[in-house]
Queue: 3 jobs
Job 1
Amino acid sequence: MTFRVETEFPIAFDSADHLHPWGTKRDNNTNENFVQEIMSRFTSDTKLKVIDLGCSGGKLIRSWLNHTEYAVGLEGSDYSAKADRAEWPKLYNKNLFTCDVSRSYQIMYDDEPFKANIITAWELVEHIDPTRVDEFAKMIDRHLVHDGVFVGSGATGSDAPDGVELHVNIKEKSFWDEKFETMYYKDMNYPFSHVVREGCDYNFCYKKVDPNKLTALF
C-alpha cells in the first residue's frame, strides 16, 4: 500500500520559498496535543486520512503516522529532500513528496485517488501566488471528503528575511472566508484548543459540506 503524487509541477520552481529557501530549510513543527485533539474528535470506523500542505521538514506527518498510516505531506521546495533533512531521509516518496500545491496535482493511494478527512496548511496560504489561489483551493476541494475540514493559519504581515518577500499573498482571514464560502464550505471559527504553529495572525477551519444540505446546516 503506497502513496504517489501525479503532477506536472513536482517543484514550485517559480516560488520565492524555493528560490530563496528560508522556512523550508529551517521549519520542522508538530504539536502532539493538536494531533491528539483531532484524534479524539474523529469517531469514524475507518482510519483518519490526513494531508499536510507545506510540510517543510515533515515532523507533523511523522506525528500523524503514530496514529494512522494514511498521512501524506506535500512541500513545494526540494531543499529538505536534497539535504536529507529532518524526516525526509525516512519518508521521501513514501509519505513526503515535493509538489507545487498551487497547481494541479492528484494524490494517489494504491492507484486510487486519495481523499482526506483533514487537510492542514500551517503558515502556507500567505505564500500562494495570488494568480493561483483558485487552483490552490480547487486542489484542496479535490482531496477532501464531504464533512472533512481544511485547517491552518494565515499571516497579515511581511516576511523578507533575506530581502526577498516570501509573503506574496497577504490577506485577512475574511478573504479566505469568502473564498471557501463560495465553494460550499462552512467557517467553523477554529474549534480546536491547539495549533501546530504558535503566534500566527489567525487560524482557520473550513468544513466541506454537501450543497444539497445547506438548508439544514445554515
Note: The chain has a mean pLDDT of 94.
Job 2
Amino acid sequence: RELALITGAKIFLEPEEKNWPEMMRRSHIYGEFAAMSSLRNVRVKNLYDARVLKNEGHLVIVDSYYDKITSYYLEKPGMEWLISPSDPYFQVAKWLTSTDTEHLPDADCLVLLDINRETWNSYLKMRNRERDSLPGFQESFSLYKNYIEEAALKLSRERNIKLIRFIQVKAPPKT
C-alpha cells in the first residue's frame, strides 16, 4: 500500500483472512485443494485486472505472485502443509500450478522480499491468520524461504523478468 501511495500506482492486494472465501477459511471441511483454488481465483483475477491497467499505461503493483511460482515447489519436501501428496486432488493441484506458471500474466518486475525468521514471526503475529498454525507451516520456514527464492530466480530467468531482492526488516511500511 505504501509503495502504491509513493509511486501513484494502482494496487491489487490479496484479501485479509476475514475477507477470504469460506472454502479457504474452512479447509478442514472442504479440503486443501478447494481452499487453494478458492483464494487462487481472487489472486488470478488481480493478475488479469492488473494486466489490463498496465496495457492502458498505468503503473500497477500486485502484492502476490504466488500462483506463478507455486509449481516450482509444490512437491518439494516440507511442503506437505500446503497440500499433501496423499490428497486425492494433489495431481490436479500439480497440473493447475504448472498451467498457472505457464499461462498467467508475466510481471515486468518481481520483488523478492528477503526476510529473516524473527521478522517473519513478528509479521505472522501481526496478521494473526488461523492458517499460519497449520501443522508444518511454521516449521518449514527455512525450506519454504529457499524454495520461494529458487522459484523467483528460476521464473525471472525463464521469463526474462527483472528481479529485485529487497531485504525486509521489521519497520513501519513507509520506512
Note: Helices lie at 2-7, 22-25, 27-30, 32-55, 66-69, 90-103, 117-127, 141-159.
Job 3
Amino acid sequence: MQDISIMLGGYKFNFRVCALIENNSRYLLEESKVTDFLNLPGGRVHAGESTLSAIKRELKEELGLCDVNPRLIKVTEQFFKFADKKYHELNFVYYINLSNEHELCQKNHFANLDNQDETMVWVNIKDLH
C-alpha cells in the first residue's frame, strides 16, 4: 500500500493519523533522534485505507498494540516548514485510555518497534509546555 504523501504546489501534503494515548494524566509521545520535538504516535494513511484502520495498523506496528478501540476526537490541519520544505498536513487524532495494568504503562522509555530513530516516552500532563 502507498502512503498518502504527495508534492503539490510547493507543499508536501501528508494525510496522517495519530493517537492521544493516556494513562493517569500521562501521555505517550514519540521522541525522535532526528528532530528536537515530540509527536503523538501514528503515521500516514495508505491509499484506500480508512483512518480507523490506519491508526490500528500504526499502533500495532509501532507499539505492538492490538487490544484497543480508538475513538476519533479531533481533525487537525497544520502548515509548517521543516528542513527547508513546506508541509501541509491533515491529521485525524484518536483517543485511547490505557489502564495501569497494561504492559506499556509499566515502562517509562521504550523502543518504537517500527523506527529505530524513535523512542516512546510517557510524559505527565504537568510537564508539557
Note: The CA atoms of residues 99 and 120 lie 17 Å apart.
